Amino acid sequence: MVIKVLNLYAGIGGNRKLWSDDIEVTAIEINEDIANIYKGFFPNDKVIVTDAHKYLLEHFEEFDFIWSSPPCQSHSRMNRILFAQERTKENARRYPDMQLYQEIIFLKHYFKGKWVVENVIPYYEPLIKPQKANRHYFWSNFHITDNPAVPNTLNINSGKRDIGLDISNKKCSLRKDVVMHNCVEPELGLHVFNCAFKTTQTSLKEIGDK
Description:
Layout: E1 4-8, E2 24-28, H1 32-41, E3 46-48, H2 52-59, E4 65-68, H3 77-85, H4 99-110, E5 114-120, E6 131-133, E7 136-140, E8 154-155, E9 160-161, H5 176-181, H6 186-197, H7 204-209
């Protein structure tokens, strides 16, 4: 028996890049171009193009570990800055997306496996207290230690990031710099996964057999 992982709002798979091949990953991504890029990087994963929020509600019991990274734009401090600078901009005038907290509450009370919800540090005081690791907030049912070994992949001068996933020649309907900026650092993704199971991934199959 292998560990079954649900990777919600998978993007191009920054968080998944360093996970072991000994696990079975189902990745959910609503943008077809992004899903195709993910599939190119991780051909052995099952990739489904659909609404991750809805998929979670319908399929959560099928998995041992769930990672969710709901859209962060409406929570980010940058959104507040944009609204303050250009109040007539419709893309900065929006409510925080409460699906983030819906998933946290749902997983906490209904899911029996390990779970983590990741998002940016918001412009407001979080409604549910998170854990902090690097530049991310995490809500989970296990302790996540901060990991100083995670590199800063953002080049301040160019505004670009290097996480070892090259999408420069990939078809993409979204701005590629935004896609890259939204990725979780692979080293952090691995660190969180290992915190969940308190072991290295070489022992994951033994955990799945229990």
